């Protein structure tokens, strides 16, 4: 597949997303039509190198694509960012020539335009679920919350914890089909915001995972190099979606503010809103810049990642709050679109590392301690 301008692709299909956005939000229904349209444009394989069947979309461009997508529908952008960060991590492994080779799965994703589903936020350092050792592999059981895009996904990338008699609790990373035996999607995503992401729970009941399908095993609860790889990759993509939501709120607010542009109070609030938004934009630019051509995983970069992430989160939320203040009471009406931005942006608070945990993480590093106690 040839290289394409993916931001322009989103600008072409995005208006259809925007038309459906309010309905999906009201119903709490998954954005199936948007996913179908994205699939037809090969967006789910765009990040894969050309030689493996993708379009070789760079990391910065993918962040820009997700950010643009959020201008039309925040839920679609967020759930796509979850697929994208898993794929980007696989591409990084391929580019580094690490073993086991991920070339076969990347080719399969490109050939079939497969959609990946993440459970990483809840699994995080400790992992979740249980892994029982059996002949040839493991039987995995557990409930995976916040499985974004599970309503339209193909493969779930998740973990199980094996109580190794020699080394203790060990987190096993693997991917398995969402349509496989023992896998059930529980339609329980009924939330305040990002209601169209289909982030349902996925229940695994004695799902067999072959030994050679375990992509990584690590001690439970400890900070490992793996997190230095995934942190800047994942959060630069995910926070791009939230910044796009904040920018959308600003667009709505400015359109309304022009009707009362001589009001000095409105002028002040608009200036405050734009200052907060600039903070978020600058922090995201720095965060995206960590994953450049010379990207080297390190605890230092992870520390920067989470500090930038907190700045993007807090500044984006403040910008949306100011947007509502600019518009006034009309912002309370669903038809205006601002209250949806307000609800959607709240989700930024809950991705790891949450604000207080980030402060502790960064403080420990500054004091020469291990990142995680």
In short:
With 373 residues, the protein is an alpha+beta fold. Helix content is 50%, strand content 16%. The strands form two sheets. A four-stranded mixed beta sheet has the order 1-4-5-8.
Account of the protein in words:
- With 373 residues, the chain is an alpha+beta fold.
- It has three domains: 6-114, Butyryl-Coa Dehydrogenase, subunit A, domain 1; 118-219, Butyryl-CoA Dehydrogenase, subunit A, domain 2 (Beta Barrel), CATH 2.40.110.10; 225-366, Butyryl-CoA Dehydrogenase, subunit A, domain 3 (Up-down Bundle), CATH 1.20.140.10.
- Helix content is 50%, strand content 16%.
- The protein is built from eleven helices and eight strands.
- The strands form two sheets. A four-stranded mixed β-sheet has the order 1-4-5-8.
- Strand 2 and strand 3 form a beta hairpin.
- Helix 3 runs parallel beside helix 7 (225-257) and helix 7 (225-257) packs antiparallel against helix 8 (264-289).
- The longest helix has 33 residues, at 225-257.
- It is globular, with a radius of gyration of 21 Å.
- The model has no long low-confidence stretch (mean pLDDT 97).
């Amino acid at each position: 597949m040839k290289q394409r301008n993916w931001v322009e692709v989103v600008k072409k299909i995005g208006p259809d997303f925007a038309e459906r956005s309010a309905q999906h939000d009201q119903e709490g229904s998954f954005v199936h039509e948007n996913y179908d349209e994205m699939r037809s444009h090969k967006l789910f394989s765009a990040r894969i190198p050309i030689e493996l069947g993708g379009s070789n979309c760079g990391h910065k461009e993918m962040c820009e694509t997700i950010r643009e997508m959020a201008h039309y529908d925040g839920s679609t952008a967020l759930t796509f960012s979850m697929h994208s960060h898993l794929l980007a991590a696989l591409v990084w492994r391929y580019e580094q020539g690490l073993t086991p080779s991920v070339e076969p799965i990347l080719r399969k994703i490109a050939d079939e335009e497969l959609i990946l589903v993440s459970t990483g936020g809840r699994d995080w350092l400790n992992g979740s679920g249980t892994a029982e050792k059996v002949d040839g592999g493991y039987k995995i059981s557990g409930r995976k919350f916040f499985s974004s895009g599970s309503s339209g996904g193909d493969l779930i990338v998740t973990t199980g914890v094996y109580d190794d008699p020699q080394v203790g609790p060990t987190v096993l990373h693997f991917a398995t089909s969402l349509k496989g035996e023992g896998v059930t999607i529980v339609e329980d995503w009924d939330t305040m915001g990002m209601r169209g992401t289909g982030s349902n729970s996925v229940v695994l009941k004695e799902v067999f995972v072959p030994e050679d399908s375990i992509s990584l095993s690590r001690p439970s609860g400890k900070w490992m190099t793996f997190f230095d790889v995934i942190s800047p990759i994942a959060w630069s993509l995910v926070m791009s979606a939230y910044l796009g939501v904040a920018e959308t709120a600003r667009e709505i607010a400015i359109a309304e503010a022009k009707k009362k542009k001589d009001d000095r109070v409105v002028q002040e609030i608009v200036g405050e809103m734009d200052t907060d938004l600039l903070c978020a934009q600058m922090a995201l630019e720095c965060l995206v810049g960590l994953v450049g051509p010379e990207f080297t995983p390190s605890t230092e970069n992870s520390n920067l990642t989470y500090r930038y992430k907190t700045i993007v989160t807090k500044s984006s939320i403040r910008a949306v709050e100011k947007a509502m203040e600019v518009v006034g009471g009309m912002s309370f009406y669903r038809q205006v679109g601002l209250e949806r931005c307000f609800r959607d942006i709240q989700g930024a608070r809950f991705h790891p590392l949450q604000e207080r945990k980030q402060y502790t993480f960064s403080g420990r590093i500054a004091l020469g301690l291990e990142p995680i106690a």
